[in-house]
Design goal:
Elements (H helix, E strand, L loop, with lengths): L5 H13 L2 H8 L3 H15 L4 E3 L6 E3 L1 H25 L5 E7 L1 H18 L3 E7 L2 H4 L9 E6 L7 E11 L12 E5 L5 H12 L4 E6 L3 H10 L4 E4 L21 E8 L5 H21 L1
Parallel strand pairs: 3-4, 3-5, 7-8
Antiparallel strand pairs: 1-2, 5-10, 6-9, 6-10
Amino acid sequence: MRAIDPLLLRSFVSVVDAHSFAKAARRLNRTQPAVSAHIRRLEDLLDAPLLVRGSGRRSIGLTPSGAALLPFARRILELEVEIWKRLDHVEIAGNVRLGVTEDHAAEIVPRLVGLFRKLHPDVDVDIQTGMTLNMRHELGHPYDIVLAAQPPDSGGGMVLHREKLVWLSRDGKIRREVAPLPLAVYPEGCLYRRWAIDALDRIKMPWRIAISSPSRSAILAAVAEGFAVSVLPATSIGPGLRKSIVSRGLPPLPKLEVALYRADDRRAATEAFADFIVERFAARSRALR
């Protein structure tokens, strides 16, 4: 019986989940030829074709052998993660400096840190918020890990997921008599701000900046008071803000890509937290299918 390298299984599962060799390569932070080579090695090892290359939006399909392998591959990779968690959590200690947007720091990141510290109580995570398009270029100092909000297909980092941006108003409605449209946005350089303005310009809807602030709280306060409209990632909208999502009257917005960047300093604490983030996002994506 020949051993199967988990690296080959990881590439196989990533291609299946991404429906694309190119997207899988970006998620794994590898080149597309490397991922293709992993699939060929796995097919040679098992002496069976695993994937069907076709055309169309979802161009990657599974052969019967691939479909049979997939659940076992997932179990093996999950067990591998569990082994490292069990063996490492007692010994890992230190400090991880995480750079993230204010919006993801408000909803997603605190839950991730809480779950991670249950496994690794001796690791402290310092969360610093800001414009992650700039933060991703400052790895090593002052950040060990950056969760960057970036345009789709930016080609950098390990892509964790894509999410939509949503418009927010006090009651989820837009009053046409209020013109130009007052905006509450982050300062110049913010991706959300640029996309919101570009979208309004495309439909020739007049706008003005009512408030520009680096503070999410200040932006949400402006929305709550009803004197401005804003744009935020959908995953950062908690239950209390769902009624504020604007469903019509404003132009659609591009999807946002969230990617993980890690410093070359491969300290155990940094590696453990980065791997944990990747696994949690992967589990979340599988649960949403």
